[in-house]
Amino acid sequence: MSSPAVTRLSISDSAAQQVIESAIREAQRLGVAAVVAVVDESGVLKAFHRMDGSLLSMVQVAQDKAFSSAATRLPTGMWFEATRQDKVFEFGISAIKGICPLAGGVPISLDGQVIGAVGVSAGTLEQDEQIAQTAAAAVGSAQPA
After folding, report:
1. 48, burial (CB in 10 Å: exposed 0-12, middle 13-18, buried 19+)
2. Which of 42, 52, 62, 82 is least surrounded by Cβ atoms within 10 Å, i.e. has the fewest?
3. Strand partners of residue 67
4. So what's the pLDDT on residue 100?
């Protein structure tokens, strides 16, 4: 008889804080005020930081990027080209609550398993992606967009 339970790895509190700290350092290096959200493997918020000077509108965007990346196990930066080429896919993605198809959401993997994701909203989409990639790499491996 097979077990009715499934064991999954999840990002720890301390690792989530390391991701936040790494994102803040990279944002400061780039000279942008970032909002950073870290979620667990299920997309539930684990850690959050809003830098002084960041826009209030970025709060939900960062959380949605992190959720989107955890939910699909993909960097959100991959979606722009895919949705541009496939209007049915674009329509489907836009219908899912909390999905944000903008660069800056990156899964965090450990031993090949997604343990969480980071979402960043700061400046340009390129800056968001760079900050998120750097932050994810602080505790695991990031999947490039």
Report:
1. middle
2. 52
3. none
4. 85
Burial class (CB in 10 A: 0-12, 13-18, 19+), 83: middle
- Predicted confidence at residue 142, as pLDDT, reads 58
Q: What is the mean pLDDT for each group of 10 consecutive residues in the chain (145 residues)?
A: 82 97 98 98 97 96 96 88 75 76 94 95 95 93 54
Residue 108 has a CB neighbour count (10 Å cut-off) of 31
pLDDT at 144: 52
* pTM confidence score: 0.89
Q: What is the pLDDT of residue 60?
A: 96
Domain residue extents for the chain? 13-142
Backbone angles phi, psi at 65, to 5 degrees: -65, -45
Separation between Cα atoms, residue 109 and residue 44, nearest integer Å: 16
CA distance 105 to 16: 14
Give the residue from 46, 42, 48 showing the smallest Cα distance to 113: 42
Task: From the options 3.40.50.720, 3.30.450.150, 3.40.50.2000, 3.90.230.10, give the CATH code of 13-142.
Answer: 3.30.450.150
